[in-house]
Design brief:
Elements: E1 50-51, H1 53-59, H2 66-75, E2 82-84, E3 87-91, H3 92-101
Antiparallel strand pairs: 1-3, 2-3
Length: about 110
């Protein structure tokens, strides 16, 4: 039904193209068939590690209102925030860092 392939005597490919070995097809980056590690998700983050704006207000005993936190976020001030979907969170290490960097000592 189909014609037999012509013998290419050493070239191994059609129209004189060289035949590639499996070594030629290896990636210079190693074995790419391995799967990547699973992405970090909210499920792997402890709930206590993320604070909502309301929880941050409670932590600071109402010294700053949620509206102030919103204004700070819009102006690039305050502790670093993370938005996941439409919700805003503050990572506890970022809050502690902000508190430490903005600590005021009494002079007198």
């Amino acid at each position: 039904m189909f014609p037999a392939p012509a013998s290419s005597a050493g070239t191994g490919g059609p129209a004189g193209a060289p035949m590639l070995s499996s070594r030629d097809l290896e990636s210079p980056y190693g074995d790419l068939t391995r799967t990547a590690p699973p992405p970090i998700t909210m499920a792997k983050t402890k709930k206590a590690d993320l604070l909502t704006p309301g929880e941050l207000v409670e932590r600071w005993r109402g010294a700053v209102a949620e509206k102030t936190l919103r204004n700070w976020r819009n102006r690039g001030r305050g502790p670093v925030s993370t938005t996941i979907g439409r919700r805003v969170f503050y990572a506890l290490p970022d809050v502690v860092r902000y508190e430490r960097e903005n600590r005021k000592t009494a002079t007198g």
